[in-house]
Design goal:
By secondary structure, this protein is of the alpha/beta class. The chain has 15 helices and 21 strands. Strands 1, 2, 3, 4, 5, 16, 19, 20 and 21 form a nine-stranded mixed β-sheet that branches. Strands 6-9-10-11-12-13-14-15 form an eight-stranded parallel β-sheet. The two termini are 37 Å apart. The structure holds N-(aminocarbonyl)-beta-alanine and zinc ion (2 copies).
């Protein structure tokens, strides 16, 4: 059945205008005023509402064995939560540990997602060890349509790679034209600082930030950039959290290193005082890199508005209260992660666009269009154009609500943004032409989501591919 979205105001990364959108099958077939729809067309009245391209979360964890436990969401719960919040595509980190076989891991992650996701998805393939099999395995994974890698400079002996492994990964990535995403913290410094703090009896969540100070992230960011420069690979720093790391990234960009920068929802809204709360309240806000001094928040907003931070993800990673309490005796055992797949769009709108910190087009760009372009999903995703997938968000800027664990759809027993007001909400969300969400409720097809296969696009000899 065709779908006509009538009378809304379309907002993209570049433009803003009133128009109807006609969807035939899975794609947008016409954009114009007073479009005449064929019989049997479902008409959605979007008057008074904004219409955005479906939002893309470039950094989520769903299946995640980590820190002696597993993140709580399934693809079913996370994808519905994503859609209710306006996210129609996510890119999941496929993270087998250093002791697992990479290809087995890749098949396991695909199998977990297939048939279980209500929205579309892709993977970043984590390289957590580089041995004799890795080269052939990564080539196979890229041929299968997973055209981005992930490396962790942190998490020594678990996900973390050493400098030789980073060099080999980036050398292969440059040859294959694949972008490499990186968690940039110096693993050795974190490990040494953790041991020192614990030896001094400093065991509470408030010591997590001092164990991973800003300089440790800046060092990781700078080192990643140096390795990109020498290998001529293209990189993407994930979840950048502070001014010194931003300076290292911008310095690299200005040297011509092909480096893109992501920051994530918690770092725009929460500061270290959340993690310094006593006991479980602090533990709920432990993630890495950690929540930082408040002075960094404005720096991140400014850099986002200026386009120095390219994209906004979530690093969605739900661990419940019982799991967080695994770290009751030592902050080093608190499972790291703050969920946000459901809240990202509404909170960035409310505290960014509505408060005048973020231009509406940069908002669409950073949360949809730029991740689509960076990760080889455009023009199918991230734009409203004839022939693009009809992933559309009809957005109500007049809705008023409050974030709460009581009403969330993420599988967790708390919400890191509890009590935050929101001044907006998706009214209707479609995935390839099918209505999946109406007014905060999932009403669609639970297995609608498809894996998005992507082509490599970052070859050594070519210039930057993204504006
Ligand atoms: O604290 C975080 N970020 N947890 C998830 C793992 C990671 O580093 O991305
Ligand atoms: Zn990370
Ligand atoms: Zn992550």
């Amino acid at each position: 059945m065709a779908l006509l979205i009538k009378g809304g105001e379309i907002v993209t990364a570049e433009s803003r205008y009133h128009s109807d959108i006609l969807v035939n099958g899975e794609v947008i077939s016409a954009i114009g005023t007073d479009l005449v729809a064929p019989p049997d067309t479902e008409v959605i009245d979007a008057s008074g509402k904004l219409v955005f391209p479906g939002f893309i979360d470039p950094h989520v964890h769903i299946h995640l064995p980590f820190m002696a436990t597993f993140a709580k969401d399934t693809h079913a719960t996370a994808s519905k939560a994503a859609l209710i919040g306006g996210t129609t595509t996510f890119v999941e980190m496929c993270c087998p540990s250093r002791n697992d076989d990479a290809l087995d891991g890749y098949h396991l992650w695909k199998q977990k997602a297939e048939g279980n996701s209500a929205c579309d998805y892709a993977f970043h393939m984590a390289v957590t060890r580089y041995d004799a099999k890795t080269d052939a395995q990564l080539r196979e994974i890229v041929r299968d349509g997973t055209a981005s890698f992930k490396i962790f400079l942190a998490y020594k002996n678990f996900f973390g790679v050493d400098d030789e492994e980073m060099f080999r990964t980036l050398t292969l990535a440059a040859e294959l034209g694949v972008i490499t995403t990186a968690h940039c913290e110096n693993a050795e410094l974190v490990s040494q600082l953790q041991q020192l703090l614990l030896a001094e009896g400093k065991t509470g969540p408030e010591w997590h930030q001092p164990s991973r100070p800003e300089a440790v992230e800046a060092e990781g960011t700078g080192r990643f950039a140096t390795f990109l420069q020498q290998t001529k690979a293209t990189g993407y720093v994930v979840h950048l959290s502070c001014a010194p790391a931003l300076r290292a990234a911008v310095d690299a960009k200005m040297r011509g290193v092909r480096l893109f920068v992501e920051s994530v929802l918690p770092h725009f809204l929460l500061d270290r005082t959340y993690a310094e709360r006593a006991g479980i309240e602090g533990m709920k806000h432990i993630m890495s890199p950690p929540l930082r001094d408040k002075r960094n928040l404005q720096v991140l907003w400014d850099a986002l508005q200026a386009g120095l931070i390219d994209s906004v993800g979530t690093d969605h990673c739900p661990f419940d209260t019982e799991q967080k309490l695994l770290g009751a005796k030592a902050f080093t055992q608190i499972p790291n992660g703050i969920p946000g797949i459901e809240e990202r769009v509404n909170l960035m709108w409310t505290y960014g666009v509505k408060r005048g910190l973020l231009d509406i087009h940069r908002f669409v760009d950073a949360l949809s269009t730029r991740p689509a372009r960076l990760f080889g999903l455009a023009p199918r995703k991230g734009m409203i154009a004839i022939g693009s997938d009809a992933d559309l968000v009809v957005y109500d800027p007049h809705y008023r609500g409050t974030i709460s664990a009581r009403t969330q759809h993420t599988n967790n027993d708390y919400n890191g943004f509890e009590g935050f007001a929101i001044e907006c909400r998706p009214s209707v969300v479609t995935v390839r032409g099918k209505v999946q969400v109406r007014d905060g409720a999932f009403v669609g097809q639970p297995d609608r989501g498809r894996m998005l296969r992507r082509e490599p696009q970052y070859f050594k000899s070519e210039g930057p591919h993204v504006r």
